[in-house]
Amino acid sequence: MKKTTQFIEPFGVDIDLDIGAMPGAAHHLVRRASDMRGYYTDEAALERLICQGDPVHYEVFETPVPEEIGHLMYCISTLQPGRVGDEYFMTKGHYHTCIETAETYLTLRGNGYMMMKTAEGRVCWEPMCRGRMVYVPPYWAHRSINTADEPLVSFCVYPGNAGHNYGDIASEGFSKRVYLRDGQEVIV
Ligand code: F6R
Ligand code: ZN
Predict the structure, then answer these.
(1) CA 89 to chain centre
(2) Alpha helices of the chain — where are they, by DSSP H?
(3) Which of 29, 87, 93, 128 is deepest in the core (most CB within 10 A)?
(4) Any ligand 1 atom below 6 A from CB of 94
(5) pTM of the prediction?
(6) What is the Å distance from ligand 2's center to 136 Cα?
């Protein structure tokens, strides 16, 4: 029978559950504060952070598999703790290019939220904490937000053909954001 999905050899990978890394990962994406221009409410606070050493915001570790139907892409996403002004550190967020694809996020460490939205304007958020899995259904853009004082580490799995569309969410934005105000975490 002709195989339409690429045949590859089985493999295993090591995951450091404590620090939130995949030591042998072939791809290691690092996003710094300077990669986040345009995403936070307080632009001046972001520029100050960039001037103060441009710290790492988040990292993604993955060993890619073929980007096609049938395969499962997986990665470790590690989002550092911190705030830009009073807004908690967050990922850029994206829709999947193939919008009919879902994703699961299993939190391994830390606390925060998965903020999700549809192109029609529905917004929804789910708490992220160790031992909890968030299911991001097809059609929902998603961004993680770290509200704790330690890294927020997730193990993500999604279809190989999902792809990432950052452009639409960069222009639409998310209508709900998470801040620390008067000592309280608020979603407004
Ligand atoms: C993959 C996925 C995560 C994110 C990661 C970084 O589909 O949702 O692995 O890629 O948390 O966030 P973004 O990609 O929004 O910069
Ligand atoms: Zn995704």
Answers:
(1) 11
(2) 43-51, 167-172
(3) 128
(4) yes
(5) 0.96
(6) 8
